[in-house]
Predict the 3D structure of the following.
Amino acid sequence: MMDEDRGTLRAREVGDRERKAGSETSDSPVPSAEGGRAPRARITRERASLVHHLGREWDTLVWVVAAFAVLYYTEFASTLLFDSRVKGRWLYISIASFLGCGSCLLYAFTRRNGLHPNNWQRTAPVLVPIATVAGLAGEVGLAVAVWSVWHFYTIPILFTLFMGFVATVSLLGL
């Protein structure tokens, strides 16, 4: 028996058992918010969709909270500004690289109607590679700049901050 046949058979068995037990997946009507009666199957699908959406956002929120925790407990900003162990030249290189990456992103967002994700290679062929190289140069420069402060912890700290940035951007819908 093929896997699809087994899956279909199993779904039928589960559906039969749930109908016999009178569970939520039956199509018996229940009161809805509009005052009418809605089938239970539709309500269950809506709940499943909501749970799936919250599960996806939960992962994003965990990265944002982790990034804020790293910023707070490592005293990241004050370390970059006032710690004498930070290598200034590499810090300035990383700041310039991040500004270059940010300017590419700002250009893409301000020209949103002209730059569609499907057409980037045609409308702005060098934008994505420049932003990628600038972002990587910024990350490497920042890692070299603060390596003398946190040593091997630098890599997970910067990775957590990067994922927090990506999660924040995805939450904002940019």
